[in-house]
Amino acid sequence: MPEEIPPAVALFVRDEGEGDPVLLLHGLGGDHTIWDYQIPSLAKSFRVLAPDLRGHGRSPRPEGARYTFGEFEGDVRKLLDDRKSGPVHLVGLSGGGLLALRLVLDDPGRVRSLALFGAMGHMDNHTRAVGQNWAEILRDDGPAAYSRRLAMDLFAPDWLEAHMDLAERIAKSQEERNLKGIVQWALAMKDYDLRSRLGKIRIPTLILHGLDDNVVDPSHARLLRQAIPGSEVRLFPNTGHLIPIERPEETAQILLDWASRNSTRPAPPS
Questions:
Q1: Does residue 222 lie in a domain region?
Q2: Quick check: 34 and 244 in contact, CB under 8 A?
Q3: Which domain holds residue 96?
């Protein structure tokens, strides 16, 4: 039975620069600020759209929302329509990468190229167990213990030791968030599986993954590369799940080069 999709909501979005659009999607529990270091560099050459997804940051938390991928897709389509955006260079981090893969497959005419950070084509037992552990810590020990566990899981050990103040600020910000939408989106991810469809992707695709990612096993980068024709992979040693934070300058340059290279290609048919 087709999923019943409620009306889309207007998302808060940071909209900067001019040129071909680059759409940056954050992950579960994040918001547009995860891209703070990359936006200024990209906005010199491109129009950058960095929204807060529903239930996150400054975007609405609609009454009755179930935070399914269908709902998130509808919101993103509305955003692109409202902003009169042509085909985008689509960038997704973690859960935003899962959403990006859905968008490419369901609405390919809207996407010119795809870049995925710490993403996967299906939910496996490892990531499911990580999420279950977070939920149990939040339930049993409270937000402070939950935020500490997040920091330990999201970042590579060496980076965490060298940037403890920043990691603690990022983790502590989770204590102040409304977690209802975050929890519901996490539940919607449990049965995520696009493996039978990935071979249909026909746009340039870049897969980026930290080799010390404790949330999404790095083996998913290889699985995505094997499934998506012509895709490319970049692996980052001594790097965890949040590559844009652990490797800010490198991420900015990679995205700038990627979007520039693929702006010369014809836009996909609508």
A1: yes
A2: yes
A3: 13-123+192-263
For residue 162, being part of any structural domain is answered with no
Span 53-88, pLDDT tens digits? 999 999 999 988 999 999 999 999 999 999 999 999
166 occurs within a structural domain: no
C-alpha 215/C-alpha 4 separation (Å) is 30
Average pLDDT, the chain: 93
CATH of the domain at 73: 3.40.50.1820
Full-prediction pTM beyond 0.90?
A: yes
Q: In this structure, is the dihedral angle defined by the CA atoms of residues 120, 211, 134 and 9, taken in order, positive or negative?
A: negative
Q: Distance from CA of residue 28 to its chain's centroid?
A: 8
Number of domains in the chain: 1
143 in any annotated domain? no
Tokens of residue 138, six digits: 């939040």
Instruction: Assign 3-class secondary structure to the chain.
Output: CCCCCCCCCCCCEEEECCCCEEEEECCCCCCHHHHCCHHHHHHCCCEEEEECCCCCCCCCCCCCCCCCHHHHHHHHHHHHHHCCCCCEEEEEECHHHHHHHHHHHHCHHHEEEEEEECCCCECCHHHHHHHHHHHHHHHHHCHHHHHHHHHHHHCCHHHHHHCHHHHHHHHHHHHHCCCHHHHHHHHHCCCCECCCCHHHCCCCEEEEEECCCCCCCCHHHHHHHHHCCCCEEEEECCCCCCHHHHCHHHHHHHHHHHHHHHHCCCCCCC
* Distance of alpha carbon 178 from alpha carbon 155, whole angstroms: 23
